[in-house]
Specification:
Number of strands: 10
Structural class: alpha/beta
Mean pLDDT: 86
Oligomer: single chain
Number of helices: 15
Strand content: 5-15%
Order of helices and strands: HHHEHEHEHEHHEEHEHEHHEHEHH
Helix content: 40-55%
Length: 407
């Protein structure tokens, strides 16, 4: 297929595809799916080999968020029967993180519901970062606390945070359809604040909220322009008790096409398979490893993932290997730039996630270029609406409970 040859060549050169090329990936047929996966897999292997980075989520504060993000189980007015608790103490969070690191996680993502942190919240998280790094000096820590205000990113960097997650979630043109209590521009500003402070930026999207192919391409192109080091791809978990509870728009094949499109547009960044993979990819999860180079291990914020050991078995059975703590995730040309940027920002400052299912702060839809793909989406919605709710398991273990975590 000429399209795939062109996309592979561009990916190996780190060249941006055209919008039409990205849209064409989403419009490919199921008959061509394995060819699409194989092509995007060549790009993935060029920059990341067969390594899979493991990340582990710790939900520091769950539920009761004042924001109205339609997809979020922790949103204002949510009737989802999730765990609700206030801030974990630093030693509690460190204990939860320890389980993930023991399971092979290289990065710990500290997430808290809410619009954004107060200065006191930043102090709490700073103490938690110190507690985690005291026990695991080499672990990466990513904070995901919502919208940042002046100086907070620098304080997190000084406290030892390595990265900051804040997802764009969907296209700028349709952002107001899913959230009214903050704007798309607010999200972009927070990612840029993190980058300016020398934190590695992590920003991604949620697919399956009823968006068009054009919306998906819009947000991924916006992410490419924003240039985060990692791009988490979430698939909507339709929680009962949220406005999007009946949005069952995804098939495993659709998910794989989305991941392939992201890899072609962002060839040399850490593409992370995030929330909803078990729900929507199901038995086709191993194929996704040919497209992504990073996954979350175990459970998510308010939903349960598959057993941590099952994740490790899946990686090994598919012929991949867990990325070790001593390995640099990003390709050399990106890692060198990131190190230089962090060094300069650290000198200036005096110092050295995402999963959508439960919110990370305010967690986080042009033209109809591919009518056939929209028709397919509408057909999927008609046949799947209200189905497969058995696949969504609310988290009842780990952080905020007396039960051991899944890692």
């Amino acid at each position: 297929m000429d399209l795939l040859t062109t996309l592979v060549d561009k990916g190996l050169r780190r060249e941006l595809p055209t919008r039409d090329e990205a849209l064409a990936v989403l419009a490919t047929s199921d008959d061509d799916l394995l060819d699409v996966v194989a092509a995007a897999g060549r790009v993935r292997r060029q920059w990341f080999g067969r390594r899979v980075k493991l990340n582990y989520l710790v939900n520091l504060k769950s539920g009761l968020c004042p924001e109205d993000c339609s997809y979020c189980s922790q949103r204002l007015g949510s009737k989802a029967e999730i765990l609700k608790y206030t801030w974990l103490k630093p030693d509690e969070a460190a204990a939860a993180a320890r389980a993930g690191v023991a399971g092979g996680a290289k990065r710990v993502c500290l997430v808290a519901s809410g619009r954004g942190p107060t200065d006191r919240d930043v102090d709490r998280v700073s103490a938690t970062i110190a507690a985690i790094k005291d026990q695991n000096e080499d672990v990466e820590v990513c904070a995901c606390l919502g919208l940042l205000s002046g100086g907070q990113a620098e304080r997190l960097r000084s406290a030892g945070a390595d990265a900051y997650n804040h997802n764009l979630n969907t296209s700028e043109g349709t952002y107001g359809d899913i959230t009214t209590t903050h704007t798309y521009a607010d999200r972009v500003d927070t990612v840029q604040q993190a980058q300016a402070a020398g934190l590695s930026a992590c920003s991604g999207l949620i697919a399956g909220m009823g968006e068009s192919d054009a919306d998906l391409v819009d947000v991924v192109f916006s992410l490419r322009a924003l240039d985060p080091d990692s791009v988490p791809v979430n698939f909507l978990i339709p929680f009962e008790g949220t406005p999007l509870a009946k949005e069952w728009n995804l098939t495993p094949q659709r998910c794989l096409r989305i991941l392939a499109m992201v890899r072609f547009v962002c060839p040399d960044v850490e593409v992370r398979l995030a929330g909803g993979r078990e729900v929507h990819l199901r038995t086709m999860q191993p194929l996704a490893l040919h497209l992504v180079n990073s996954i979350f291990l175990g459970d998510y914020l308010t939903s349960e993932g598959q057993a941590g050991q099952a994740d490790l078995d899946m990686i090994a059975d598919a012929g991949f290997e867990v990325e070790g703590a001593g390995t640099t995730t990003l390709p050399a040309h990106r890692a060198d730039v990131a190190a230089a940027d962090c060094g300069s920002h650290a000198a200036d400052a005096g110092s050295g996630c995402g999963s959508h299912d439960g919110g990370c702060g305010p967690c986080g839809h042009g033209e109809d270029a591919v009518p056939a793909a929209r028709t397919e989406t509408a057909a999927r919605k008609e046949t799947a609406e209200g189905a497969r709710t058995d696949l969504v398991a609310v988290r009842r273990r780990g952080a905020g409970t007396d039960l051991p975590p899944n890692a």
